[in-house]
Design brief:
Structural class: alpha/beta
Strand order of the largest sheet: 3-2-1-4-5-7-6
Strand content: 15-25%
Distance between the termini: 47 Å
Helix content: 25-40%
Order of helices and strands: HEHEHEEHEHHEHE
Length: 189
């Protein structure tokens, strides 16, 4: 509640924003307590299946308690070595995780690998702004420059499709971090 992540999830994961309708296999990467999973389930088709993983078994316990749905599976996994097949997911959400990795490239490559061609990814990261620097100190994480992160995503086959913002004021003042919808590039024929 204090961080505003619940409100942000509700604004981002819905028709008209990051729309998961039509996606049958969805991944909540490093799901934490399941805050994004809750909205993914709410807005996904009734026959869509959600897979969520986290490195922390304790966080998975919290996510399981929160969701209690037969449409969700949970696993302990590392973002840099995912136990899923290539092209396994139509949509992925990865929120506030990359900034905790020593190098974002292995995580980005894995996210791209598990997406179907033209699959979509909602990526949320701490930005190198004043508020980002405050978050970085508080949560002991790195920040990202928008242009540099875009280049890293492109190097991993992820096309920067659309930026999302909590509000117009957030966009104007560059608050709230980097929130971007990416698409996996189709492999060259």
């Amino acid at each position: 509640l204090i961080t505003g992540h619940e409100a942000l999830a509700g604004r981002l994961i819905r028709p008209g924003a990051f729309d998961v309708r039509g996606c049958k296999r969805i991944l909540d990467a490093a799901c934490g307590n399941g805050r994004y999973s809750e909205f993914l389930l709410k807005h996904a088709d009734p026959d869509a299946l959600l897979t969520s993983f986290d490195l922390s078994p304790k966080m998975l316990e919290r996510a399981r308690a929160r969701l209690r749905s037969p449409r969700v599976t949970h696993a302990v996994a590392d973002l840099t070595r995912l136990p899923y097949a290539d092209g396994a997911f139509d949509a992925v959400v990865c929120g506030w995780v990359l900034e905790h990795l020593p190098d974002p490239m292995p995580g980005l490559r894995e996210l791209a690998r598990v997406l179907t061609p033209e699959g979509k990814l909602l990526l949320l990261c701490t930005e190198d702004t004043l508020t980002g620097a405050m978050c970085s100190r508080l949560w002991h994480c790195r920040t990202y420059n928008r242009k540099e992160l875009r280049g890293k995503c492109q190097a991993c086959g992820l096309r920067w499709e659309k930026e999302h913002w909590f509000s117009g004021l957030h966009r104007l003042l560059r608050l709230g971090g980097i929130i971007v919808e990416l698409r996996r590039e189709r492999p060259a024929a």
